[in-house]
């Protein structure tokens, strides 16, 4: 074996900051029905005029999410890529990210000025999270209808995501969820990491989440500045 | 260099294999694959055709790394792979997996040979270069290719049909002598064995928009 | 066996060389067409035939046969029979022999190696039936390699019959037909029941199978881009 293949010689030069610029990659994960696709569509509508952006969808089946985005995000077809996950949505975003990297790189080559890519995972469970080989930051979306115990249950998505979004706050009275409990439990398990309680029905622009994304784009620009 | 070979053949190697069913998803839809018996038959025909072709190409690509002009040698093999893969869906699946393997292989085993590969090479070519740069022999490359021609599809069948994973593992394990036979028979040659059924299934699959797998 | 087709000064095809020996005779049946005629039963196990076809620039050649070839096993342990067609094509070559019937215990290997020069066009159709009526199927292995300017366009080997590694129930057809054509670009794929057409650079390859030869022929026609009447002539 050549000497540079020894483990002692190994230095990984491929951290996200060293990707030679390129767009900020934002993962959008969370359980089925929590509103990932609706949030992606809202962010595309709100940020589409500010940034050169694109979306990768990881539907477990069909290209339904991609089709939804085409209809609702005012995003041209050539800015949406759907990947097949081989029945394993969490594998495709965490363990073997090849198909997603291919999709991101395809979008990058198609749109050389790309500044922002959302990678939307297929609906999965509370243990699913993105590999940082695929995304720079990740948002985990849960909803109030799942019960106010969700943040307390934790899981990597809830505890370690860069932003936790609790969606559908408008439903809290209907499902008997206590937003105060959700806020408190989230803060308890997440330390300094932010949590936003939102309702896409009441705020279709996802204003606060969009602002958080802007901060991340700015932070990455500083990080990768020559 | 057994451990490097195990690394190459490991289904957890993040090279994108888990999103390809090797025709299994469409075989299930077409009603030709439904249980362990028909899975074994399907894997056998895949091994004997695309498995043999991949094994031959992988071994040749492994040797091409030491060629005086590896760019030309690998380019010629890429054309041979195309000629053996007239199905556009199967070509795309092969090149997609080739690209994935280049991504991980070139970081694990940096070597000028990676740059000698055509952009988005056929998977067996990437496998051959990975074997060479990982210190393996052409015969090892053939074995990895032959094994991978059935291991991924077997897992896909398990997922899609909710088959007993132990049954599927047993089916795969019992094909080992045939995998070895195909690899040994193909390592010094460039077989062109084809299965028109797999071509048809691949094209029908590619035309669907309700699929879990990329191929 | 050897046939050379040449384009004369007035642009017409002539056949300066038409010769054969052994189990195959060859007859001129038109200005630019020949028919192969078997001089004995068979091919028989152990037979080995090489056919060289040269179609020079501007010339055309059609190669047919007068009857189906019925491949028979030799006595005892029958070795395979071989037929190798080597074609050098700068003009237009059409290969459309009658079906090959491979009887029980027989093992036939058919190879086509075609080298196309720039502007050379090839259409080759193959029809195979395993076993006569009520008989066990025989083995058939067909290899097609077509190169243009030294670069391979297609190279495939199909194995049919008991013991062929990919001839396994529930898809183990008795009848198989295929056409490879480089006479024009067909970028689209076409699929049908037990039939598929795939694009080649500047051409296509179609394959179909079934229990009976006429089923397979009809299925191939359903995915072939050629006009139906022309196809009927090719696969008559």
UniProtKB/TrEMBL annotation, chain A:
Assembly and oligomerization: Homodimer. UreD, UreF and UreG form a complex that acts as a GTP-hydrolysis-dependent molecular chaperone, activating the urease apoprotein by helping to assemble the nickel containing metallocenter of UreC. The UreE protein probably delivers the nickel.
Record's protein name: Urease accessory protein UreG
NCBIfam families: ureG
GO BP of this protein: urea catabolic process
A GO CC term assigned to this protein in UniProt: cytoplasm
Transmembrane segments: none
Species this chain originates from: Modestobacter caceresii
Region named Disordered: 1-23
Keyword Nucleotide-binding appears in the UniProt entry: yes
One GO molecular-function entry: GTP binding
InterPro entries found in the cross-reference section: CobW/HypB/UreG_nucleotide-bd, P-loop_NTPase, UreG
Automatic annotation (TrEMBL), chain B:
Source organism superkingdom: Bacteria
Pfam families in the cross-refs: UreF
Principal place of residence: cytoplasm
Keyword Protease: no
GO MF assignments: nickel cation binding
Record-linked InterPro entries: UreF, UreF_sf
Subunit composition and interactions: UreD, UreF and UreG form a complex that acts as a GTP-hydrolysis-dependent molecular chaperone, activating the urease apoprotein by helping to assemble the nickel containing metallocenter of UreC. The UreE protein probably delivers the nickel.
Described function: Required for maturation of urease via the functional incorporation of the urease nickel metallocenter.
Family to which this protein belongs: Belongs to the UreF family.
The protein, known as: Urease accessory protein UreF
Species of provenance: Modestobacter caceresii
Recorded name of the encoding gene: ureF
């Amino acid at each position: 074996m050549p000497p540079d293949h020894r483990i002692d010689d190994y230095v990984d030069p491929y951290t996200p900051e060293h990707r030679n610029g390129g767009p900020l990659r934002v993962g959008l994960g969370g359980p089925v029905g929590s509103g990932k696709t609706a949030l992606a569509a809202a962010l595309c509508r709100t940020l589409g005029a500010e940034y050169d952006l694109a979306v990768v969808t990881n539907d477990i089946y069909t290209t339904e999410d991609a089709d939804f985005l085409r209809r609702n995000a005012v995003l041209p077809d050539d800015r949406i890529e759907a990947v097949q996950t081989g029945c394993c949505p969490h594998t495709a975003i965490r363990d073997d990210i090849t198909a997603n990297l291919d999709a991101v790189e395809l979008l990058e080559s198609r749109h050389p000025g790309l500044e922002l890519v959302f990678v939307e995972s297929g609906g999965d469970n509370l243990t699913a999270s993105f590999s940082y080989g695929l995304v720079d930051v990740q948002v985990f979306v849960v909803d109030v209808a799942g019960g106010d115990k969700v943040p307390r249950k934790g899981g990597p998505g809830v505890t370690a995501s860069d932003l936790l979004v609790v969606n559908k706050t408008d439903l809290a009275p209907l499902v008997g969820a206590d937003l105060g409990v959700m806020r408190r439990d989230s803060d308890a398990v997440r330390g300094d990491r932010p949590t936003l309680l939102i309702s896409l029905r009441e705020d279709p622009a996802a204003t606060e989440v969009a602002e958080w994304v802007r901060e991340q784009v700015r932070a990455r620009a500083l990080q990768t500045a020559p | 260099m057994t451990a490097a070979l195990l690394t190459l053949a490991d289904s957890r190697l993040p090279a994108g294999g888990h999103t390809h069913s090797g025709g299994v998803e469409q075989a299930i839809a077409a009603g030709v694959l439904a249980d362990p018996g028909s899975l074994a038959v399907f894997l056998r025909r895949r091994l004997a055709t695309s498995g043999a072709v991949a094994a031959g190409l992988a071994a040749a690509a492994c040797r091409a790394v030491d060629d005086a002009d590896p760019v030309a040698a690998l380019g010629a093999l890429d054309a041979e792979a195309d000629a053996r893969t007239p199905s556009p869906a199967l070509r795309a699946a092969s090149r997609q997996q080739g690209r994935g393997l280049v991504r991980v292989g070139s970081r694990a085993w940096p070597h000028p040979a990676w740059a000698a590969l055509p952009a988005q090479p056929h998977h067996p070519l990437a496998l051959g270069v990975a074997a060479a740069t990982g210190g393996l022999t052409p015969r090892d490359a053939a074995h990895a290719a032959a094994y991978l021609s059935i291991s991924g599809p077997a897992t896909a069948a398990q997922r899609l049909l909710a088959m007993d994973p132990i049954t599927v593992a047993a089916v795969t394990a019992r094909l080992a002598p045939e995998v070895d036979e195909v690899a040994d028979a193909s390592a010094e040659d460039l077989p062109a064995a084809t299965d028109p059924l797999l071509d048809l299934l691949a094209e029908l699959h590619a035309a669907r928009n309700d699929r879990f797998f990329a191929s | 066996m050897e046939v050379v087709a040449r384009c004369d000064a007035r642009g017409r095809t002539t056949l300066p060389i038409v010769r054969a020996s052994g189990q195959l005779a060859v007859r001129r049946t038109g200005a630019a067409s020949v028919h192969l005629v078997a001089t004995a039963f068979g091919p028989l196990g152990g037979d080995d035939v090489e056919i060289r076809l040269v179609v020079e620039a501007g010339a055309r050649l059609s190669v047919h046969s007068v009857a189906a070839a019925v491949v028979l096993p030799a006595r005892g342990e029958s070795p395979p029979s071989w037929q190798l067609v080597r074609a050098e094509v700068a003009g237009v070559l059409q290969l459309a022999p009658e079906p090959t019937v491979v009887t029980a215990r027989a093992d036939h290997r058919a190879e086509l190696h075609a080298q196309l020069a720039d502007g050379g066009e090839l259409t080759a159709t193959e029809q195979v039936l395993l076993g006569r009526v009520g008989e066990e199927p025989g083995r058939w292995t067909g290899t097609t390699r077509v190169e243009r300017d030294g670069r391979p366009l297609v190279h495939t080997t199909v194995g049919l019959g008991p013991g062929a590694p990919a001839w396994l129930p529930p898809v183990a057809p008795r009848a198989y037909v295929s056409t490879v054509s480089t006479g024009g670009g067909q970028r689209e794929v076409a699929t049908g029941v037990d039939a598929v057409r795939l694009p080649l650079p500047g051409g296509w390859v179609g394959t179909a199978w079934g229990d009976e030869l006429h089923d397979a022929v009809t299925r191939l026609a359903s995915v072939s881009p050629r006009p139906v009447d022309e196809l009927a002539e090719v696969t008559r």
